Amino acid sequence: MAGIYIHIPFCKQACHYCNFHFTTSLRYKNELLAALLKELVLQKVYPGINPVRSVYFGGGTPSLLDLADINQLLSRVNAVFQVSPDAEITLEANPDDITGEKLAGWKSAGINRLSIGIQSFFQEDLEWMNRAHTAGQATENLELALRYFRNITIDLIYGTPGLTHEKWEQNVKKAIALGIPHLSCYALTVESKTPLDKLIRKEQYEPINPDQQSEQFLLLMKWMEEAGYEHYEISNFALPGWRSRHNSSYWQSQPYLGIGPAAHSYSGKERQWNIANNNSYIHSINQGIIPFEKEILTETQQLNEYIMTSLRTLEGLDTGKVNEERRFLLEASAKKYVDAGLLQRAGERLLLTNEGKLLADGIAAALFF
Ligand code: SF4
Question: Which long-range contacts (CB under 8 A, 24 or more apart) does 289-296 make?
């Protein structure tokens, strides 16, 4: 089960909190697209990539692409790789780019899943985040998208200073009421050197309140459970049958290939990442060289990676997959978290409790070898 990720590094405007790789200049869009098409061919032999079960257009803002660009990229993917006939093909879209014409075009191109960056249904929150869309567009264009696509996921952000628990409940329950089958919900994080970081340092923006974030995460888990969603990964909720195949392959340590500047790839034993600079990327690809750095993972690193990702999932960490000597050590490290009610056992599996999920990264790190 392998996936291909294609990074589209363009956005209309910079959201204050974002530290992804993107530019707001579309000047070299055509050159970059040509380079993506070439990289797909250069990566033909990436280990373990066939058959391809999912393709994901992420960014940046892939909904800024013309339909012809998407068609070209998908035809190239199909020409170079063995794509399963039932592959999940996701496009990330921002609400302000969505029109009936675009939706029909995406569908005809073979896109069968949309990931829409809603973040909040409240205008003041969107302005605070410097999102390009309005609250009106969030609602209207999400409803429009539902007329064309059933398989939709939306992103929501919690823990922003203006988001009261009541507003958070309205955001989540609106998505549930609309029948959105998949939600990705993220606590706002302040990444260094982002505009948000600078605004907080200059005291122009209120700092983040970790208690508010924890409370909103606990509320979220309660509401989603009541609505029948599976909390199948720490930030992801799906109605039964609507999990993301692409994201699941990341969490199950399956191989994936990342195309484009700053895109990451993983073969099971090696991790590599392309240069996060559009011009250098284009220049290098034009010379037939993929500009990447690579890390070969030791067995211990692979195990730690498994501990980190599996603990974040509904299925948890299967200690049966760990050799006997290490299993003994793992169980010993886990005991204090089980005793504290942060981890629970289910047969050979270790699962985070809801309270444990608040501390997921720290607990995983404490179990590392
Ligand atoms: S649209 Fe997405 S990728 Fe672009 S700046 Fe905003 S959060 Fe970042």
Answer: 290/39, 290/42, 290/43, 292/265, 294/270, 295/270, 295/271, 296/269, 296/270
